[in-house]
Write a structure and sequence with these properties.
By secondary structure, the protein is of the alpha+beta class. 43% of the residues lie in helices and 14% in strands. The radius of gyration is 12 Å and the shape is globular.
C-alpha cells in the first residue's frame, strides 16, 4: 500500500521523469486532478488539489501508461509494479 506523503509524490515524479514524462502543476478546472496533454508526455496536475488527490490522480494515470521498463532502475520497476497492483485507500 502506498503512503500518502510528500516523499511518495516525489518518488512518483522522479519515476515519471525517468520514463520521459514531464509533471507540471497548474491551476485549472480539472475534474480528475490530472490529465495528459495529447500524448505529449506532459502530465498536468491541479496545483490546488490536496496531497492525497495529487497522488491518486498521478497513480491513476500511471496505471494506464505504458512505461518503458528499460529506462527505469530496479527500485523504480519494483515501485511501478507496486503501483499497478495496489488500490489506493483514502
Amino acid at each position: 500500500m502506498l503512503t500518502l506523503t510528500t516523499h511518495t509524490l516525489e518518488k512518483l515524479e522522479i519515476l515519471l521523469r525517468t520514463a520521459g514524462y514531464r509533471v507540471r502543476y497548474e491551476k485549472g478546472n480539472f475534474k480528475t486532478g490530472a490529465c495528459m496533454l495529447l500524448n505529449n508526455r506532459i502530465i498536468v496536475v491541479n496545483k490546488f488539489s490536496n496531497l492525497e488527490s495529487k497522488i491518486q490522480a498521478i497513480v491513476e494515470l500511471m496505471r494506464e501508461l505504458e512505461l518503458d521498463y528499460n529506462l527505469l532502475d530496479d527500485k523504480q520497476i519494483t515501485f511501478l509494479q507496486l503501483i499497478k497492483q495496489t488500490k489506493l485507500q483514502l
